[in-house]
Design goal:
The complex is a heterodimer of chains A (449) and B (197). Chain A has 449 residues and is mainly alpha-helical. Chain A contains 23 helices and no strands. Chain B is built from eight helices and seven strands, in the order E-H-E-H-H-E-E-H-E-H-E-H-H-E-H. The chains are: A mainly alpha (449), B alpha/beta (197).
Chain lengths: 449, 197
């Protein structure tokens, strides 16, 4: 009982500290993780086994961690998620350095002859597609910067376009296992593949993307009218090729990205786990970068990696002390064991929570909850997993602080003279979020119940 | 004359801004306060009123989030723009007076920085605010409380030192003792002494 109380206190304090944003969040989770090990597992439980299980270092020595022929569930620190995220960060930094993202954005703008509405639509789709493979922060960082540049040249208001890109980045991220951190956590915890996600959450994201593009077109078409009535002379605009800083690096980083996509798409056939893929991509990027490696490594966001380690320890504290099982029992009770009610609760509660708090801790906490729920009620774990992924990924779009892409996108806009208030943001994106959640609810009910 | 950057932190109602303006005149250098807002407005295309709304305001913690150095808070972004602006001015070698904006900390690395903090007696500040803003005593007190609380939160959020802590500034001075004009005289002497070093 004492262990449970301390586990909850540490978790709640961690969440409050993350929300208050006074201390950097990686210090918060790491400090909370150390406290969990010392107080919950050490002082209260005197359990070396719990500490050992949570640190999960033994996982590295198992073949299953690198090469998995069957679905396996992981507990404690989810090292596969951490290695994968770190590997992809290194790859993305290599791509950014070579000018890949800027080139891609400019190329697409030129393909549609830099006309505002076609740029608007293609950028939304590009944002969704890129976010399926790359973290949405990077996607928005580049897309928003190019949008601002185009807006200045073509004289239109960039805010509607950036907001739509943010929404589509979060939507695209929900489509695959590596698109959004909650999906990586869900996927690696339950042993799902890239294709499992694509054929389940991916279908929901695809349908929702069509509706979203139409929604944003009608929501923003009046604001997107260019001030410049004259025909745009695109020969005066900066050429896509100017974005490439080094041709050799550009080709190499494009090839590495292509390899990462192939490895991810085929990993259910090759049986390589995401940890192996992350590590392989990182090693190849480092070898290819040669002398530029220190520059790339310096830009890698180590804070996020540390944040994940601390977070997984704190969530293990809740799991080992049985708190998450109590939450599962509570959900079971209020839903009366009814699968539809359970799905609706998980989807909408995840979405509402993710709109206001970081969806990563929320997803990490909910994974053991849905595992416990599935075991006790007989509702398919797969269904609950897709529901959780969609809820956490999509809910984050509703407010400016719901997901990392939102923060980065609105910040880039503000830095360039287009501050986006909560009211401005939520006016169009909150209804769009509700629309996609409604579509997803229907999709899950029709397909899985 | 080498570069001189006069940073003026101030309590609301202490006459800090007026002192800063007088110093700018005596040294014949530009002052960045309201002008800072206008320059940023021109650069970004934002309306000055829009910048003024978020100027030297702390962000709302519950409604803000930071990711890899990016923040959704408009207050944070306006603050960063202003820090960058004064940093660029300082780096260019220009001499100027800057009011607030955490300048005593943000420009600490510049040799020519003279950092001042102007405070005042409570009753003197109330009297001054009542006169300048045409307010009742009670309303003036409330306004002083509100403004100083905001400045403190803004400063302490962006800097490691505490707003008004004398250890953070070269000189902290109570403008109520000598009055505005003689305080300016005294500060001018001090700054000239620093410049001759």
């Amino acid at each position: 009982m004492t262990a449970q109380i301390f586990a909850v206190i540490i978790f709640v304090a961690m969440f409050i500290m993350i929300v208050l944003d006074k201390i950097e969040r990686h210090y918060v989770t790491l400090g909370s993780g150390v406290l969990t090990i010392a107080v919950v597992f050490g002082i209260c439980q005197h359990s070396w086994t719990a500490i050992w299980n949570t640190l999960a270092i033994k996982n590295f020595a198992t073949a299953e961690f690198w090469y998995a022929t069957s679905e396996s569930e992981s507990k404690g620190i989810n090292w596969a998620t951490i290695i994968f995220i770190a590997g992809m960060m290194i790859m993305v930094e290599g791509m950014a350095k070579a000018g890949f993202f800027r080139w891609l954005c400019m190329k697409i703008a030129f393909l549609v002859k830099c006309r505002t509405i076609p740029v608007f639509i293609t950028f939304m789709i590009m944002s969704a597609v890129l976010s399926m493979f790359i973290d949405s922060i990077t996607v928005i960082m580049f897309l928003a910067a190019v949008t601002i540049e185009l807006a200045q040249l073509l004289r239109f208001n960039p805010v509607p376009m950036i907001l739509s890109e943010i929404f589509c980045a979060n939507l695209g991220g929900s489509a695959t296992m590596c698109g959004d951190p909650p999906n990586i956590i869900v996927g690696t915890s339950m042993g799902y593949s890239f294709f499992d996600f694509l054929s389940n959450t991916g279908v929901a994201a695809g349908i929702s993307l069509v509706f979203s593009v139409v929604f944003f077109y009608f929501a923003f078409r009046k604001e997107l009218v260019s001030d410049n009535a004259e025909k745009i002379d695109i020969s005066k605009l900066p050429k896509p090729s100017e974005a490439i800083t080094n041709k050799k690096d550009f080709i190499v980083s494009s090839l590495i990205f292509g390899l990462a996509v192939v490895l991810l798409v085929t990993h259910s056939i090759t049986h390589l786990t995401v940890a192996t893929i992350g590590l392989a991509i990182a090693v190849i990027t480092i070898i290819a970068a040669g002398k530029s490696t220190p520059e790339i490594m310096k830009k890698v966001d180590y804070k996020t990696v540390v944040f994940f380690i601390g977070l997984f320890i704190v969530v293990s504290g809740l799991e080992e002390t049985g708190i998450l099982e109590l939450i599962a029992q509570f959900i079971e009770k209020i839903s009366g064991g009814n699968a539809m009610a359970m799905i609706a609760i998980i989807l909408w509660v995840s979405a509402i929570a993710s709109a206001f708090v970081d969806n990563i801790p929320f997803a990490a906490t909910m994974v053991p909850v849905i595992q416990s729920l599935a075991a006790s009620t007989g509702v398919s774990l797969h269904t609950l997993a897709w529901t959780l992924s969609i809820g956490t990924d999509i809910g984050g779009s509703a407010t400016p602080i719901g997901a990392s892409a939102n923060v980065v996108g609105t910040s880039v806009a503000a830095k360039n003279g287009h501050p986006v208030s909560w009211g401005r943001y939520c006016k169009k994106l909150a209804p769009a979020t509700v629309m996609v959640l409604a579509i997803s609810t229907v999709y899950i009910f029709v397909r899985y119940i | 004359m080498g570069q001189i950057i006069i940073s003026v932190g101030r309590e609301f109602g202490s006459g800090g801004r007026v002192i800063a303006e007088a110093l700018a005149k005596r040294f014949d250098i530009p002052i960045y306060d309201r002008h800072l807002i206008l320059e940023i407005a021109e650069k970004t295309g934002l309306a000055p009123e829009e910048i003024e709304k978020y100027n030297e305001n702390p962000k709302h913690r519950l409604f803000s989030r930071s990711v890899r150095g990016y923040s959704n808070s408009i207050e944070d972004n306006i603050a960063e723009m202003q820090f960058k602006f004064i940093e660029d001015k300082a780096a260019s070698g220009e001499s100027f007076v800057v009011v607030g904006r955490c300048s005593e900390t943000k420009l600490r690395k510049y040799e020519g920085l003279v950092s001042l903090f102007i405070l005042g007696d409570a009753d003197e500040k109330v009297k001054r605010v009542m006169e300048v803003y045409d307010l009742s005593e009670e309303k003036a007190k409330d306004l002083i409380d509100k403004k100083d609380r905001k400045r403190k939160r803004y400063h302490n959020y962006h800097c490691s030192g505490h707003w008004g802590d004398s250890r953070l500034y070269d000189l902290s001075i109570n403008s109520s003792r000598l009055g505005i004009d003689r305080t300016v005289d005294m500060l001018e002497k001090y700054i000239r002494a620093r410049m001759s070093e």
